[in-house]
Amino acid sequence: MSSPVVIALKRAGRRDLKVGKLEGLWWLKGEDYADFDPRTSDRSRWRWTAMLRWPDEVPDDIRDDAFARATRKVGAETARRLHVAVLHEGPCAQLMHHGPYADEAPSIERLHRFIDDQGLTPHGRHHEIYLTDARRSAPERMRTILRQPVR
Question: Maximum CA pair distance of the chain?
Fold first, then answer.
């Protein structure tokens, strides 16, 4: 299933402009980013933002078409929360997790151990980039980049 952005780009004949993989930012509601530790936090309390990276060169009319398509697809109430934003994370540590999302804990632990060993401090929201589509991939074949902004 293609995203409204991909469909709008194809309809406009702009196959040269590529949309990135689905990404997610994760945190706990009401807590400072520095207090959120994905190794120990109760996942049922996690909050998230889903993102699609798209090229800077997307013309306004194609963007507007994508938003109109999204509104028809998800409804006006959900579509009101859609927006274009620039993400400035700064320096990050990251690694590739192999396997299902439910088995990320050891990979997140390894990532944070690396951050600690380098004398760095987590800063900002836990970030995941989903390289495989969970709807179409066997759990053992799933690949996710786990990223943590640091300072």
Answer: 49
In the predicted model, what is the mean pLDDT of residues 34-41? Answer: 70
Q: What is the predicted pLDDT for the residue at 31?
A: 67
Residue 93: half-sphere exposure toward Cβ, Cα within 13 Å: 19
Give 80-126 pLDDT, tens digit per residue.
998 889 899 999 999 999 999 989 989 999 999 999 999 999 988 99
Count of C-beta atoms within a 10 Å radius of residue 34: 11
| Residue 48, phi-psi category: left (phi > 0), alpha (psi -120 to 50), beta (remainder) | beta
Predicted structure pTM score: 0.84
> Residue 128, Cβ neighbours under 10 Å: how many?
23
CA distances for 23 relative to 26, 76, 120, 126, 151, angstroms: 10, 22, 24, 11, 22
Name 57's Cβ contacts closer than 8 Å, sequence gap at least 6.
17
Ordered structural domains, the chain, with CATH? 32-44+90-151 (3.20.80.10)
Per the CB < 8 A criterion, the answer to whether 81 and 70 are in contact is no
